[in-house]
Amino acid sequence: TIKSTAISLYYRVEENLVKDLKDTERNFLINLIDSPGHVDFSSEVTAALRVTDGALVVVDCVEGVCVQTETVLRQALTERIRPVVFINKVDRAILELQLDPEEAYQGFVKTLQNVNVVIATYNDPVMGDLSVSPEKGTV
């Protein structure tokens, strides 16, 4: 059976990384919910989104933005959740497709452009600019 899986991670920010935080603000409990990407589990994705502060959207660098990726992004944006994109399976670009660094980079750029098209299509203007890019720390 495919179902959502949750895990909790404890993280403490070191003082030398962020000096403006009080000692009591340095501790974070991060709850990750891995929800199935299959279309039959859209309700589980929606339920997971309703208890989260953010969404980590994993995109295969070879497959790119698939129909279900678009669906999950739309669900996140509908719930007013800010997405962060993770480009996965980079090894496939190198080993299977044997892309040189420039070709791989151009493939990543195209993937991010496609993600941003989906975001622009479903974004609520109240949320502001949700486009993703490495410069913004959202990839």
From TrEMBL:
GO terms for cellular component: cytosol; ribonucleoprotein complex. Keywords: Cytoplasm, Elongation factor, Protein biosynthesis. Residues 1-139 form the Tr-type G domain. SUPFAM superfamilies: P-loop containing nucleoside triphosphate hydrolases. It comes from the Eukaryota. GO terms for molecular function: GTP binding; GTPase activity; ribosome binding; translation elongation factor activity. Transmembrane segments: none annotated. PANTHER family: EUKARYOTIC TRANSLATION ELONGATION FACTOR 2, TRANSLATION ELONGATION FACTOR-RELATED. This is Tr-type G domain-containing protein. It comes from Heterosigma akashiwo.
